[in-house]
Amino acid sequence: MMSSITFSFVFVVNLLLQPIRQWLESLKIENHRLARWLCTVIPASCPFEREFKWGDRILVHIPPLCKLNPFYEQLIEIRFKALMYLADECGEDVTQFC
User: Fold this and answer.
1) Under a CB-based contact definition with an 8 Å cutoff, are residues 32 and 72 in contact?
2) pLDDT tens digits, residue range 16-48?
3) Pfam families from the xrefs (predicted)?
4) Are the CB atoms for 35 and 52 separated by under 8 Å?
5) DSSP state of 64
6) What phi and psi, each to the nearest 5 degrees, are found at residue 22?
7) How many other C-beta atoms can be found within 10 angstroms of the C-beta atom of residue 53?
8) Phi and psi for 31 in degrees, rounded to 5?
9) Rounded CA separation 27/29 (Å)
10) d(Cα 41, Cα 11) in Å, to the nearest integer?
11) pTM attached to this predicted model
């Protein structure tokens, strides 16, 4: 059960981050170099997810932590927009970024 203080804190943080989220969502990708750079910088999958194995046994599994990033959805959307720009507008093969 969430206390009212925790709920208030989460509400305030979300309220403060909302303008940044909206700005990220409104970005238009219209530059070939920027699109390639974004596809290179933003990973296709979470780089923090790990499995530590001993032979065939998994000893420890660290789940993907990227979803803790408050801008995770917006960054994935920007990467997708960049991929779509490269594929549709520039006619580039984007398999190297997948």
Assistant:
1) no
2) 999 999 999 999 999 999 999 999 999 988 888
3) Mo-nitro_C
4) no
5) P
6) -65, -40
7) 10
8) -135, 125
9) 7
10) 30
11) 0.78
